[in-house]
Amino acid sequence: MQDLETVNQPRRRRLLLPLWVVLAVFFLIEAWLWDHLEPIVARVVALIPLAALKRWLALRVGALSPALTLIVFVVPAILLFPLKLAGLWFISHGRWIAATFTVVAAKLFGLGVTAFLFDITRDKLLRMPWFKWGYDSVLRLREMATALVDPIRRRIRARIKAVFGRHGEGWGANMLRRILRWRRSLRQARSEP
Known about the structure:
The protein is built from six helices and no strands. The mean pLDDT is 77.
């Protein structure tokens, strides 16, 4: 019986690999959004008088215990929950564009605000052992997800280069140019009387 299980383990891993890759891609998209929204939020803070708010909030957070700081960090996620429910309501009523816009806006706004608040609360939150463990675990998961997805990303980039070439001289680029020329000639033929 033991031998049968050891034989099936590689098969199970192969069957679960696509699931792990998809989860890793979603995780990396979240991480990418986090990394890229933080500078955008910083620019918004520079444009709007949010820098003063950030200083004020940093002073207030400095006076809080780590547990109360966690509440400051979590409250925006709770406040955005009704927007996500609104997105579900739009989906249930067949309003796909409104649902997509609502969910994406809530996600981007939530990530931006969370990045803004995490920048302020990070030091206090990392004083809690369980939070530090969770933070370190997320960083390790990010490294594992990157290691899992990188070979696939390199293969995709190599295939794109093979099809389109580095400077547009690949067979795919030539075919795309031919299709576009053909479309232009069809439009010109239709527009001529």
